Amino acid sequence: MSLAAYASDPAATRGRRHPEPPPPTRTEFQRDRDRIVHSTAFRRLVYKTQVFLNHEGDLFRTRLTHSIEVAQLARSIARPLGLNEDLVEAIALAHDLGHTPFGHAGQDALNECMAAHGGFEHNLQSLRVVDALEERYPEFDGLNLCFETREGILKHCSLANAHRLEQAEPGGVGRRFVERTQPSVEAQLCNLADEIAYNAHDIDDGVRSGLITLEQVAQVPQFGEHCARAQQEHPQLQGRRLLYEAIRRMLSAMVYDAIDATRERLAATRPDSADAARMLGPLVTFSGGLRAQAAELKHFLFHNLYRHPRVTETTGRAQDVVRELFARYLAQPGEMQAGFAARADTPRAVADYIAGMTDRYALREHERLTGKRLLAP
Fold it and tell me: Mind listing the GO molecular function terms for this protein (predicted)?
């Protein structure tokens, strides 16, 4: 399939930080995707929390299954828009590589611990993983990914960190945050696919957990309208089959809405290159009506699932694990693996070490160092 004029062309990539001969049988973005899939950080995602801690059930989403779902949705939208599917997949699979154990609760606790040392941003940590922390190749640290993949991985970045990135790599992935321009259309698409994925699968996991009910979420228009239509067409549907069918229809509606709304914006702005698209406002979007519905669904999930007392109790203890690990490693760096213990910047080494942990490894380490079991591994 031919690429649209505004798509990222692997033959015109801005390149890698360390030059390498081109791959003989793959595009540059295919090579990036393959390196990500074979990385240690990618394998760890299977034991990292999305919403529910890993030990709470075998069928809840993890960071790995979430990343795969984001990649699938992103490719489904990329193809009809003429975007580069390999780049989209690479960004989607790598976007959570820097996430801490215990999901956003772990991230918030680690950011609190690092407040006096530059803070902690999981998107910036994902970039650190692919730029420096992976140790696989003899010539360089990290995975040495293309600029376009790294740009997409860095979804958010504080202005202070953007200036630091720009100083270290002039014209690199930090510049767009300083100049307030956009990333590639493929990167914008991955951001929207991430939102589509977690809105849908958090409904599924929330109902499966028993913390929210199908009847509750059916009161939210974005989900409820699809649930009602499914029941109209299939009166015998109930329980999990009804839930799955309503989620399937909701996902399809979001995907097709994003395709149509983005096409309209691209037709109106007519970018004739990937760089021209970066100079415009956001191009990948929902229609106004669906955007409002998605915001209402987010509000429902925030108050009824993410802030459910059972979730906050568990995540509160998980945050204690992160805080106590940080304090112990900072005081006794030798308790970390040798490569981290030897680094001069001890606070950042501790943050890198904890961020790389799976849920269960963090729990085992915490019990080893403190003698306490705050959560069952």
Answer: dGTPase activity
